[in-house]
Amino acid sequence: MEKLINILKFSEEYLKKYSFSKPRLQAEKVVAYVLKLDRISLYAYFDRDLSEDEKVQIKNFLKEMARNRMDFGKVLEKLENKNVDEITVEKENHKKENLQLLKHSVEYIEKNGIENPKLEAEYIFSHVLKTNRLTLTLDFTRKISEEEKKLIKEMIIKRARDKKPLQYILGEEEFFGYKFKVDERVLIPRPETELLVEQCIVLMSDVKTPFILDIGVGSGAISVTLGKKIPTSKVLGVDISDGALEVANQNKELNNVKNVKFIKSDVFENVSYKEFDMIVSNPPYIPEKEYKILMHEVKKYEPKLALTAEDEGLYFYKLITKKASDYLKNGGVLAFEVGYNQAQKVKNMMEDNEFENIVIVKDYHQIERIVIGKKK
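RESULT FIELD:
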């Protein structure tokens, strides 16, 4: 795959070699036309990968321009005047073929018992074709290359037959409006965790430079989002998993945050700073007996280490709550995401460890999901 920015540079240099006036403008027009993008917003997609079919189209236009010493507008006018009927028929044929391919994909996913088969298929198609899912069928007038068809087929099979989570197939998930890389080394970020982050942002809004500790970072979704949303903060994220830390650091780079640092630590083991304004954690909390009845795709693909905990799922809450006061300022905040039946137990733990002003926040399904308390 070739990045859009590299194709633009190549096209500009190519036209410059043939002494075109305003070669960059001409190059932008060619690339924008082939990719069906607005020229003004072209650079917003600078890291987009181009398919082989798109690269061939761009190179053919460049050759035609050089051969006839015509700018792009003249070449396009000539092409459209000559082939307008042929192009219309060709586009209609492509659209029919592509809609049929989408239809068969949806049927295959549905036959294999996956919920929302149309939505899942559309995400896979839009990912491969590098287009917005909401405008997917508008791009169906172009030919889907054999390479793209092969990739779509592979992804559809992984989702339908192998029950691999869509996020792992696409290699990404959105969290709080930001894009995060995910693979089988980390849990897929959940919408419920966005609620935890919302609470943390509100609680730190009056702190000039909040120091925040995130225990069990996984993909880095909590740490990175807090770093983005509270730019004056300093966020330290810890995890015991080397794989998770690697993914978290990739997401730190992807989202361009400078105020977040990740280190390997078994909870507080390697944390030396002891004046945090907040400790936040979404630790493993599923009891072993409940893990056995989880959905197949969760058990097969998501890391068990990040899901389960001993002592009826309460192990990490007890450990963190017991030691948190040693690492928090007076009045510092401890915030947890908890399992569906754990909120009251975690609240009791906080009370036993002299936390005060403890509140429980329900999620979108009215399940007690967040527990927050302050160090006396």
